Amino acid sequence: MHEKNIPRVYKMSFASVYPMYLKKTETKGRTKQELDEIIYWLTGYNEKTLKQQMDRKVDFETFFAEAPTMNANASKITGVICGDRVEEIKDPVIQKVRWLDKLIDELAKGKTMDKILRK
């Protein structure tokens, strides 16, 4: 990711990006429930707290800062997203955004939930 885009991503509303995640998920024959399960697994949010974050229209920086518990297995998320190796991203917020992007890509590509959730 180009350095000049980082501040823009920090301030982007999670609620504004969620519909794009959902569209990508459903276009590939997967479900909203699977998408939400990935988000819950990564961040520790649940149905109620995720909805609260979306209703508040928090930005990505706040979304991840207020995440109840980042999953201990998130460091097992590896690979390339948008030309960047997710495990080598230095900025902590951008890395978390890319972890989520990578998980959603895996969902869209048909991986099983057990593999996506690093079980």
Note poorly predicted spans.
Answer: none
And the CATH topology?
A: Helicase, Ruva Protein, domain 3
Distance between the termini: 29 Å
C-alpha-based Rg, rounded = 13 Å
Number of helices: 7
Proportion of residues in β-strands: under 5%
Can you tell me the CATH class?
A: Mainly Alpha
Q: What is the name of the CATH superfamily?
A: uncharacterized protein sp1917 domain
So what's the overall shape?
Answer: globular
Which sheet architecture does the biggest sheet show?
A: 2 strands, antiparallel
What's the structural domain tally? Answer: 1
CATH architecture annotation name: Orthogonal Bundle
Number of strands: 2
Nearest-integer average pLDDT? 93
Helical content band: 55-70%
Sheet/helix structural class: mainly alpha
Q: What topology, given as strand order, has the largest sheet?
A: 1-2
What are the secondary-structure elements, in order, as H or E?
HHHHHEEHH
Summarize the entry for a quick read.
With 119 residues, the protein is mainly alpha-helical. The protein has helices at residues 6-11, 14-27, 32-43, 47-56, 60-65, 92-108, 113-116, and strands spanning 80-81, 84-85.
